[in-house]
Amino acid sequence: MVLMQMGLIINESLRLYAPASAITRRVDREVRLGKLNLPANIDFFVPILALHHDPQIWGEDVHLFKPERFSEGVAKATNDNTAAFLPFGMGPRTCVGFSFAIIEAKIALTMILQRYSFTLSPAYVHSPVQILTTRPQYGVQVILHPL
Ligand code: HEM
Fold first, then answer.
1. C-alpha to C-alpha distance for 117 and 96, rounded to whole angstroms
2. Are 128 and 121 in contact (CB under 8 A)?
3. Where do the structural domains in the chain lie, given as residue ranges?
C-alpha cells in the first residue's frame, strides 16, 4: 500500500518536473499520424514538459502537486490520453532504465523514511532549471528528524 502511494508521488513528480523535457523522432518515410501528414526526412519533436502541463489533458489543477490524480491509473489521470504522460518516453525506444529508476527511487525513499521524517528547509528556493535534464537550480535542502 505504502509502495503504491509512493508510486503516485513519483509519477506526479515526474509529471511536473520531467527530467527529460522532450524527445525527438526521425521520420524516415512519409507517414500519417492521426490528423497529421508527416513528410519524410524531418525531425519530429515531442514536447514532454508541455504535454505534462496541458490543462486540456490534466484539468485546471494541472499546476498543482496532486499525486492522487494517478490513483486510478494513467488513463484516468490523462483523460484517456495515455501518450500524454511520457517521463520515460514510449514505444520500442522507451527508457531501458524505467523499472530500475522507479525501484531505486522507492528503495532510497524507504531507507530514508525508515529512519527519519523530513521537512523542507526554509533555505529552499523553488527554481527548476533545464541543464540537459530538469533539476533544482539551488539543490533541495531538507531538515531530517530522526525517528
Ligand atoms: C528518472 C529516471 C529516468 C528518466 C526520467 C529517463 C527518461 C528517459 C527518456 C525520456 C528516454 C527516451 C525514450 C524515448 O525516446 O522514447 C530514455 C532513454 C533511455 N534511458 Fe532513461 N531515464 C531514466 C533513467 C534511466 C536509467 C537509470 C537508465 C540506465 C540504467 C536509463 C537508460 C536509458 C537508455 C539506454 C535509453 C535509450 C533507449 C533507446 O534509445 O533504445 N535511463 N530515458
1. 32
2. no
3. 2-146
Q: Is 44 labeled as ligand-binding? A: no
Measured between alpha carbons, how far is 21 from 50 in angstroms, rounded to an integer? 8
Residue 139 has pLDDT above 90, yes or no: yes
Q: What is the predicted ipTM?
A: 0.97
* Closest by CA position to 125, among listed 138, 134, 116: 138
- Report in angstroms the alpha-carbon separations of 110 from 43, 62, 98: 41, 28, 18
DSSP per-residue letters across 17-48: T-SS--EEEEE-S-EEETTEEEPTTEEEEE-H
Residue 41 falls in which region: left (phi positive, over 0), alpha (psi -120 to 50) or beta: left
C-alpha cell at 144: 531530517
Most informative mutation of 95, 104, 109, 134 for ligand 1 (most atoms within 8 A of CB): 95
pLDDT in tens, 22-70: 999 999 999 998 999 999 999 999 999 999 999 999 999 999 999 999 9
The CATH fold of domain 2-146? Cytochrome p450 (1.10.630)
